[in-house]
Fold each of these.
Amino acid sequence: MTTQFDVIVLGAGPAGYVAAIRAAQLGLRTACVDNFKTAAGKASLGGTCLNVGCIPSKALLESSENFERVRHKFGAHGITVKEASVDVAAMQARKQKIVDQFTGGIAGLFRKNKVASYHGTGAFKSAAGGVYDIDVTAAATSESLQAKHVIVATGSIPRALPFAPFDNDVILDNAGALALTEVPKRLGVIGAGVIGLEMGSVWRRLGAEVTILEALPGFLLAADEAVAKEALKAFTRDAGFVIRTGVTVTAVRKGNGDVAVEYAIEGKTQQAEFDKLIVAVGRSPNTAGLNAGAVGLKLAANGAVEADDNCRTNLPNVYAVGDVVRGPMLAHKAMEEGVAAAERIVGQAAHVNLDHVPWVIYTSPEIAWVGRTEQSLREAGIAYRSGQFPFMANGRARALGETVGFVKMLADAKTDRILGVHIVGPFASELISEAVVAMEFDASSEDIARIVHAHPSLAEVMHEAALAVDKRTLHI
Ligand code: NAD
């Protein structure tokens, strides 16, 4: 028997579950198909983000940061704690409880919005008369669904190095890095990207010696150069990370409960031994199971679904959203694309501005930015003015004891329109929202400078950075 829908969403990660909810809100009969299973073999909605990504990593980052505070920061407040210790099992149980609440919450949202939820791998079977046939295959079952509209939201998978396949025992992907049951003494990380830095932070704070090996010649080259410099200083000087850039990893050999990594740096071959190795060298679009060829869905060379700015694919009424298409692999970008695809199906004029997608790295200090970096403006020959203000000169940051970092604002030299905002420091993840809103409304640095910011608050650093663009800071 074939079950009919108006729209079938493939994938229940942030792109897919949000697309399904929005489609159902708009009155479309909606199915959402997802094949994620937990390590225990249980179907679980929410994709990588909720199960083995954003949410569990934030839980462990918070727990490990608390441990770090107790050990290294409470003393300054006059609080002494003797022999703080970590119960990794309890920390992991707390993380899992948070994950289960959210993944279960999506099942509840699906019921509330009348989204039909299917567990299994959804694949194109055929297309005829403007209708797509989708097979849903699970271990013991197989079902047939049909709809005029399909939203592909199958996400991404960790990219493995050919000589270091994941075993999630010693060589870990994002899921393995989140699931360690004890703190490794020596942790190696290949890739100084978002996952490497966040997961490296968790285990370093809990006591691991962390070495990060990065292929690119510099650190965090995607970030603004001043932010990358400040962050590198904080991570290596204050936090004790060992970060090597310009590294070519040539071999990874598993030993008896440990792993040896051979790499070349400045023409010299070196070897390092670790108890665990996280490989976080990026992710690849997850399209292998889609059977795209059956309907002629066009894929790019890297496996991504080809899609235009509005997430339309080469097939009529087939959209692709989130990590499976071009653009940053970020949950918030994915969610907005999911909403927009559902709205376009019913003929609404949706809008997602990829130029103003914020980036956040949840390290300590946190890093967040939106828009252009100073080096990209320089390279493009765009005349700009720059204003920077340190957290050190902010009352709230001093009271928090979190004074590392700054906010930097870049504005067009002629029009004063804000072109980019870069933050390294406390709660950068929250502060960046003001900049995103400002840029979406085409604000100038003067607009931010004239807005009343609460005192004392970290947001005043944004205010002062705007004043700094015009060289008129008040507090330095
Ligand atoms: P990434 O692209 O952020 O970083 C990968 C890093 O690995 C890069 O610096 C790259 O130069 C380096 N690299 C690549 N090949 C290498 C090699 N052979 N040897 C050494 N270094 C190598 O990717 P990621 O950290 O794996 O994260 C995957 C995706 O998940 C990213 O798109 C990221 O945006 C997303 N993510 C986002 C967040 C967040 O928003 N806070 C958190 C985690 C993951």
Amino acid sequence: MDTRPFRSVLYIPGSKERALEKATTLATDAIIFDLEDAVAVDEKARARVLLAETLQTSDYGTRAKLVRINALSTDWGRDDLEVIASARPEAILLPKVDTAEHVAELARLLDARPETAQTRIWAMMESPLGVMNALAIAQAPRMAGFIMGTNDLAKDMGCRFRPDRLPLLSALQLPLIAAKAAGIVAVDGVYNAFKDDAGLRSECEQGRDMGFDGKTLIHPAQLAIANEVFAPSDGEIDLAARQIAAFEEATARGEGVAVVDGKIVENLHIVTAKQILAKAEAIAELAE
Ligand code: COA
Ligand code: MG
């Protein structure tokens, strides 16, 4: 069971030295070092060199490190890969993934270099075609996770932003289900109003309830809320421990079902309970 936390996944423009430096001390589970939409066209070349250098010299500790390159069909994608490969990136995040072939194409380029032998691929789910092909994409070579690109999705869907995200719900859930089916991570999209804590919390809670592993963030001020909402709560941890204990007692008595707080507990609930405890433990280890 992979219990590495992805509660908070912070975008950092690859062109911003100050933010790159700051991220070495921020409480984020993962970082997306961006060369795509957060970097202006005339900054692209400088940003990729700065980022390759920074990845080799800065210590980001246990934080997962994803480099978002430009799509391979653009003027910059292949050069991004060429320069970033020297830093032996643990993961490349590919934007605008419409088909499994987009992932396979990147996988072949990674296969061709010894420096990227271990590099995993993450895919942005941000187009209607990508959403409809989500399962094949999730099962493509080297795939480790999906990042929802909700701004691009809303644009292509022609849908409106609403606090309940009802117009986007199917477009969120199809990739989420595909990710679960393929056993990869799924991280929810950004909340644009980065000074609106209550709105962020409510959207994090919705994403958490749906089954997302965490939320992509654009500003450090959003970290604490995502880390809190996507972590198991004290109540969940307590209940999980009591369910496991009660089930063990029931099993010892030769019974297959226990009752905790008036609800039945079967083997499948124990799987969830153990996942909750493992996740809580992995988060506690991060804090040490
Ligand atoms: N990662 C790391 N550090 C960040 C950061 C980020 N995404 N965003 C801001 N910071 C840092 C700033 O460098 C600043 O540090 P300092 O005070 O130690 O110098 C501090 O946090 C406060 O920043 P603030 O002044 O409030 O923000 P800003 O006005 O400079 O920038 C944004 C606001 C939205 C432009 C900026 O947060 C940003 O670029 N976010 C990422 C956007 C992005 O990547 N989008 C692509 C995906 S949707
Ligand atoms: Mg996008």
